[in-house]
Amino acid sequence: MKIVLRYWLIIGLVAGMLTVLSGCVATTGGYGGPAEVYEVDYYESYGYDYNRLGPRYHVAPPRGDRDDHGRPNRAENRPAQPVYRPAPPSRPVPSIPTQPHPEPRGSGERKK
Amino acid sequence: MLKRILILGIAWAAARVATSSELPPLVQPATQDHHVGKVVWADLVTPDLDGARRFYAGLFGWTFRDVRAGDKNFVVALLDGRPVAGLVQRPVPTGERRQPAWLTFISVLDVGEAEKTALAHGGKVLSPPRAYPKRGRQAILADPQGAVFAVLQSSSGDPADVLASPGDWIWSSLITRDANAGAAFYQAIFGYEVFELASDDGSEHHLLATDGYARASANSLPTNVSGLHTHWLNFVRVVSTNDAVAKAVALGGRVLIEPHLDRHGGMVAIVADPSGAPFGMLEWSDSESKEVGK
């Protein structure tokens, strides 16, 4: 009788330990911890009509102070009283970082 | 018998721990270098995760890793083993005209401060600050004109300021009704230097910079454009925009703006993935560009 009791006591302890251990792992999704769901679920308002922007609507970062045609990248007419603090006129227009990545990171779109 | 139960139980628990994983840190090994104002991450919210995986894998060679065993709704996209984006599957809200989109994450040192500053300047909090293991703290905000973005306080540091590899994010633009107001709002949060750029179409284009590097642009919508809401648009670097657009179409994407020359002398295009989420593709040669000294 004593042996049977001890047997079930050990099984109960092991089961409890495993339950505690596995409880450290969330199973309901997300990465915010147990039972949490990643809170990124935003959908944008519907509608885009990019074509009306036209090919002269530029979005890319400049390369230095002049564009591909040698024209200044910085606007000559600045707002009289901008609501932001403009960079001083003496500051050259910056570009994106161009140092190479220390390790190769793929070749972009795959070759056909 | 007891020994067998023990072995089976331990194996089961070990298997569960081994197959689970968490969202990886932005930088491994951690550097603790922060680049405030830099776009450091993007999450796609889509109703079709499997379709998105096929599309982006075929287009950019991304591979994917489940964030947590058993969760079929979120994966991390990798480029040569490095995390570059998250893909989240969520149902489109019923009864609302909404579209899938990429959510732009911008680096901050303190999410709580960013939230306060955004609120003080007319922004809204869509998802309050929240901490995630290894990743850091983040919050989702909207600017006064409605553009949604996220701020991220990375616990491992931000990705280094190097030229994005083909297949990685290289640029972000805020497309907005009022670029001046937009520049002021984001300058308040991120401390951007604002440079007014010349534009061929008469609309206002501002460059937002920190640490001597261009981080993003704020572009006013032309007055004749009514069917476009204020939003952030992210660009992936490609070797050939024409080839990438053709591939995107073959994979089920749609062209929103055909490839054309932009101010940097390279080709740019805007496409939508099969579920309709827009993003840009931008060529950039490896040659040096001028940078403002730090």
Short structural summary:
The complex is a heterodimer of chains A (112) and B (294). Chain A has one helix spanning 2-22; one strand at 44-45.
Question: Strands, helices and their partners?
Answer:
The complex is a heterodimer of chains A (112) and B (294).
Chain A: H1 2-22, E1 44-45
Chain B: H1 2-19, E1 39-46, H2 49-60, E2 63-66, E3 74-79, E4 82-89, E5 98-99, E6 101-107, H3 111-120, E7 124-132, E8 136-142, E9 148-154, E10 169-176, H4 179-190, E11 193-197, E12 205-210, E13 213-220, E14 231-238, H5 241-250, E15 254-261, E16 267-272, E17 278-283
Parallel strand pairs in B: 1-4, 6-9, 10-13, 14-17
Antiparallel strand pairs in B: 1-6, 2-3, 3-4, 7-8, 8-9, 10-14, 11-12, 12-13, 15-16, 16-17
What are the defining features of this structure?
heterodimer; A: 2% strand; B: 294 residues; alpha+beta; 2,3-Dihydroxybiphenyl 1,2-Dioxygenase, domain 1; 5 helices; 17 strands; globular; disordered C terminus
Describe this structure in words.
The complex is a heterodimer of chains A (112) and B (294). Chain A has a domain at 19-60. Chain A is built from one helix and one strand. Chain A has one helix spanning 2-22; one strand at 44-45. The N and C termini of chain A lie far apart (74 Å). Chain B is α+β, with helices and mostly antiparallel strands and 294 residues long. Chain B has one domain (39-283): 2,3-Dihydroxybiphenyl 1,2-Dioxygenase, domain 1. Chain B has helices at residues 2-19, 49-60, 111-120, 179-190, 241-250, and strands spanning 39-46, 63-66, 74-79, 82-89, 98-99, 101-107, 124-132, 136-142, 148-154, 169-176, 193-197, 205-210, 213-220, 231-238, 254-261, 267-272, 278-283. In chain B, the strands form two sheets. Chain B has an eight-stranded mixed beta sheet with strand order 2-3-4-1-6-9-8-7, covered by helices on one side. In chain B, helix 3 packs antiparallel against helix 4 (179-190). Chain B is globular and about 80 Å long. Chain B starts with a helix and ends in an 11-residue tail after the last strand. The model of chain B is unreliable at 13-20 and 288-294 (pLDDT under 50). Chains A and B meet through helix 1 and strand 1 of A and helix 1, helix 2, strand 4, strand 5 and strand 7 of B.
